[in-house]
Here is the input.
Amino acid sequence: MERRSNGIVGYWASQEQYSMHDLIKFVSEAERGGFNTCLTSDHFHPWWHDNGYGNFTWVWLASAAAKTKRIEFVTGVTAAVYRYNPAIIAQAFASLDVLYPNRIGLGIGTGEAMNEVPAGFDWPSSNIRLARTTEAIQIIRKLWNESKKAKGTATNGHIDSDGFVNFDGQYFKIKGAKLYTPPVSNKISLYMAASGKEAIQTAAKYGDGLITTVKPDKSKETFDIFAEAAKEQGKDPESLERIAKPKVSYSEDYDKAFKSTEFWRASLIEDVFDLNISDPRQLERKAKAEISDEKVKQSTLIATSIEECIKLIEDYFNAGFTRVYVHSTSPDEIKFVQEFCAKVLPYFQDGVNKNEKNL
Here is the structure.
């Protein structure tokens, strides 16, 4: 049976659910098994109070990249709204790129209250968050020494002959900023998470791809908006990534697999990204009261056979996604990684369904 897609399958590392040490074990095992790319969350607070973690992702990235050899790391996503100034994001990821060339990417988005409110900021409306994120992306791009290719007048600012950036936006202002340790890669990939029309258009205008939680059967409208906005910018839509991160919980025991999905129940709360709730205890209580087991089962593949992941991933590729990062919340994560690498990953990397070949 020939593989019907040529997309990339990646591994998702949950900074909210596991310790930094365990996550390094997981990505190391994933790399050994054949994964070449990893998407990882970037939060201050977790979605769930019980057994949650609050790892500082940038520190973990440096350590994880040092303990692996080739796997690419991308944040999914870093919110450039309040707690992270865009100049500091640009500096941090440029430095990571110097240490690990061509292995670092930035996913950026408008964030959640759990990331900003605990640091003392108010939670603004979605249109303000998008406006701030749009300005942040422009600043990051300029500071990543793309200024070398565009000296002179720039949108909302100026880049002088030595590459010093000034930016006078509504929300962010940069005054004579220059990265003295610039990226060494030709280009750091920057992807934007988006769901609403304006955010999707912004991702096409300023990013190298779109990260979205939309399901395959609902993705056409999203991709049409994205493609049209890309064309308006003179970009080839086919050159841009369309990234998904479906959830999977695998165990031969169905009940164990389902129980292991509990940690992510709060992510299913209606309009969760706009909620002004930053306390994981409150999110947990609200999710237990409002989110049914059936809704959890609809949002996550509860797999008792690892091969069930093949159809899940193919559905995304057949819908037009170019990258699928598998977000496992399995009760035994190492077992998931090992079995996935042995029985699922080769199908997409080699173009052969190993199970049917052996029948």
Notes: The two ends are 11 Å apart (CA to CA). The chain has a mean pLDDT of 93.
